[in-house]
Design a protein that fits this description.
The chain has 288 residues and is mostly helical. The protein has one domain: Orthogonal Bundle (MetI-like fold). The protein is built from 14 helices and no strands. It comes from Phyllobacterium salinisoli.
Length: 288
């Protein structure tokens, strides 16, 4: 009978099998996917921008048209994401807690912006909110103009971003038992106190995730915005459109510079949101 060396047996005993099988394979695939799909293209983008040099990059970054376009993109995206958080939570609450005729139909409509081409959404919204549109004609006598203004951009971004909040919050809301609300009511909590102190703390991580997804989606939106924005330089021109304009002018370095600036700002904002989300998870005991 062949004996196993002591060193081999000790090494075999010290090596513990992985709880999740295939960890090495899946980790390698994940890293390769991350590198090929995300890191390498972004590295090429930054590398192309370096051809401008620091002075050229700074000139693009401080150009008034670039600054205005970035302000329009990130400002309207932030406002639209905030609006989507409020109404997305309300829509999710209605779909989870109430049963009414046509609920399945309403639930399906929420996903419509996912499947609808953004250009189609932009044309439809412009037709509705233009001064001679169904809704725009009603608001025009009141002095309210939506199409071809920043307000129109916000409307378009709210339309395409709402499903991200609803579909992020809805599963978490379904897991909250009604018994928790009943227990809070028996302890003397008002309806507002139950929502503010019992329900919202559990939903806060999901709400922040939905906000981050809606914001990230809105920052890069192009198709639905260009139709309703009016695309006036220094006023309603968004950063993605400015990138396209630079490409049409064969200013590839300038286009990649604007894209790099957008990348840096978006990464910083999403990083801050993730830090807040991690803090909220630790505070309310949901893990890091």
């Amino acid at each position: 009978m062949t004996s196993i060396p002591v060193s081999s047996r000790a090494g075999w005993q010290m090596k513990k099998p992985s709880i999740i099988p295939g960890f090495g394979l899946t980790l390698g695939f994940s890293l390769a996917y991350l590198a090929l799909i995300i890191l390498i293209p972004l590295s090429a983008l930054i590398l192309r921008t370096t051809s401008l040099g620091w002075s050229g990059f700074w000139a693009v970054a401080t150009d008034l048209r670039t600054i205005r376009a970035l302000e329009t993109s990130f400002g309207t995206s932030f406002v639209a994401a905030l609006i989507n958080v409020v109404f997305g939570v309300i829509v999710a609450w209605v779909l989870v807690r109430y049963r009414f005729p046509g609920r399945r139909f309403v639930d399906a409509i929420v996903d419509l912006p996912f499947a609808l081409p953004t250009a189609v959404a932009g044309i439809a919204l412009t037709a509705l909110y233009a001064p001679n549109g169904w809704i725009g004609s009603l608001l025009a006598p009141l002095g309210v103009r939506i199409a071809f203004t920043k307000l129109g951009i916000i409307v378009a971004l709210v339309f395409i971003g709402l499903p991200f909040v609803v579909r992020t919050v809805q599963p978490i809301m379904e897991e909250i038992s009604r018994e928790i609300e009943e227990a809070a009511a028996t302890l003397g909590a008002s309806r507002f106190q139950t929502i503010w102190r019992v329900l919202l703390p559990g939903l806060q991580p999901a709400i922040l995730t939905g906000f981050a997804l809606a914001f990230a989606r809105a920052v890069g939106e192009y198709g639905s915005v260009i139709f309703i924005a009016g695309n006036t330089p220094y006023q309603t021109e968004i950063a993605p459109l400015l990138i396209v304009i630079r490409l049409e002018e064969y200013d590839y370095a300038g286009a990649t510079a604007v894209a790099t600036i957008m990348l840096i700002i978006a990464f910083m904002m999403l990083f801050i949101i993730n830090l807040i989300q991690a803090w909220s998870r630790r505070r309310y005991g949901y893990g890091a």
